[in-house]
Design a protein that fits this description.
Pdz3 Domain; 28% helix; 453 residues; Transcription Regulator spoIIAA; globular; alpha+beta
Length: 453
């Protein structure tokens, strides 16, 4: 939790691509409306007024669509109307926030807010299945069961097709709708109907609390015998810092020569998770600074407690966003890592998550962040030091288990880059120097990989 000061409640700060998630429902903040306007106390107008006040007080305008005068008039307009149901009020709130033209400042009804909390809390109540929608058949396919979960214990296998959930056909169903049906309170049951090699199987499962691990790691050995610590960081949730620490300590004990950190398609998450993980990899230097509309700058720095100083390459792509960009930018600007892959998404805004009085919530843009060199990457992204594109054919062919292997062209380029560093005996760890050149000159020219046949 991050305290915003000034006697306000603590708020969760996040920097995810979809502005997803808090670790707990936050207490309602009692704020006096400006201009002597009386506080609205009848529901559902109370929720409308709370939302309005949060934006009025804390919102950082990056689109030029906000003005105090228009916002005050909007409050008078929406509160002058009658609302017969929460849904009508929610529609009014969404319309009000939509006028800001900021996709990251948004309202969530109680169900959506609860789902958001699950995404970054690091645990959920369910059966432990990762799902995917087959692009061609539109079938709901099991990517893999989570180890130790009810699904894993019951023998659910990768590539199983879920044809029904509690007897309801999944034909035309989205993954989001399927997840809503499969998740539920611990101790309750759900029956999945699976198709496997032409046979239909009914699998009853009892839901449990499941911890979501943010990190996968292993050792890859190069042709020259170098041991590469491959770490895939999937999300900056509440478990990410701990999971990353466990992975680094394990790989250090096993004597890896260097690291490839895979941040591809990592949409972001909690701000402090990105800061703490940067501290595990960087001994000195600035990590990130944030600026609010009042010009307050909060600077996060390394603490001299890095868990490794071995050479490091980071894999990024257009799906690497927000917290991923904070970590990538910090390590690139401090010359601690080489970035390989494609330009990142370009989301340089910080949101806080606020709980409202009826169990709904909202995310509101409150600040922007800058990399150590002062780069504002919002809508611009971070350019890799070595550009390696993944063709559409390869992306469609590549399976989850193929990531970080020889079948993955971007990983092969990252491994090659790391091996070059190891041959030169370079540990790129020094504080950012604005007068110094960037890394491309030190690692050779960029490459581009065409579609594999």
């Amino acid at each position: 939790m991050v305290s915003m000061g000034g006697g306000k409640k603590s708020v969760v700060i996040l920097v995810g691509l979809t502005a997803c998630a808090a670790t707990a429902v936050l207490s309602r903040e009692v704020v006096s409306p400006p201009g002597g306007l009386s506080r609205i106390t009848d529901s559902p107008k109370e929720v409308i007024d709370q939302t309005w006040q949060i934006v009025f007080r804390d919102y950082l305008d990056t689109t030029g669509k906000f003005s105090d005068q228009r916002w005050r008039q909007l409050r008078r307009d929406v509160l002058a109307k009658s609302y017969g149901s929460p849904k009508e009020a929610y529609d009014a709130i969404r319309g009000m926030l939509g006028s800001l033209d900021d996709p990251y400042t948004r309202f969530l009804d109680p169900r959506e807010f609860k789902e958001m909390q699950i995404d970054t809390s690091g645990e959920l109540s369910g059966v432990g299945i990762q799902l995917s929608l087959d692009k061609e058949t539109k079938d709901l396919v099991v990517i893999s069961p989570i180890e130790g979960s009810p699904a894993s214990k019951a023998g659910v296998q990768p590539k199983d097709v879920i044809t029904a959930i509690d007897g309801k056909s999944t034909k035309g169903m989205s993954t989001e709708d399927a997840v809503k049906l499969i998740r539920g309170q611990a101790g309750t049951t759900v029956k999945l109907t699976l198709k496997r090699k032409g046979q239909s199987l009914d699998v009853p499962l009892t839901r449990e609390r499941i911890e979501l691990h943010a990190v996968d790691h292993r050792i890859n050995t190069t042709e020259s015998g170098q041991k590469v610590g491959y770490i895939r960081l999937k999300q900056f949730n509440a478990n990410a810092t701990k999971d990353m620490r466990v992975a680094l300590r394990d790989l250090e004990e096993k004597g890896v020569n260097g690291y490839v950190l895979d941040l591809r398609s990592n949409p972001g998450g909690l701000l402090m998770a990105s800061v703490e993980i940067a501290r595990q990899l960087l001994n000195e230097g600035t990590i990130v600074s944030t600026k609010t509309r009042d010009g307050i700058t909060d600077i996060k720095r390394a603490t001299g407690r890095a868990l490794t100083t071995r050479p490091l390459v980071i894999l990024v792509n257009e799906g690497s966003a927000s917290a991923s960009e904070i970590l990538s930018g910090a390590l690139q600007d401090n010359h601690r890592a080489v970035l390989v892959g494609q330009k990142t998404f370009g989301k340089g805004l910080v949101q806080s998550v606020r709980g409202l009085s009826d169990g709904s919530g909202m995310t509101v843009t409150i600040a922007k962040y800058l990399t150590p060199s002062g780069r504002d990457i919002h809508k611009h992204g971070i350019e890799p030091d070595v550009t390696v594109k993944m063709g559409e054919k390869e992306a469609q062919r590549l399976k989850l288990e193929d990531l970080g292997t020889g079948k993955d062209s971007q990983y092969r380029a990252a491994e090659t880059t790391l091996v070059k560093q190891l041959r030169r005996g370079t540990e790129v760890q020094k504080a950012y120097n604005p007068s110094s050149a960037n890394l491309p000159a030190a690692i050779g020219t960029s490459t581009s990989t065409p579609d594999s046949p």
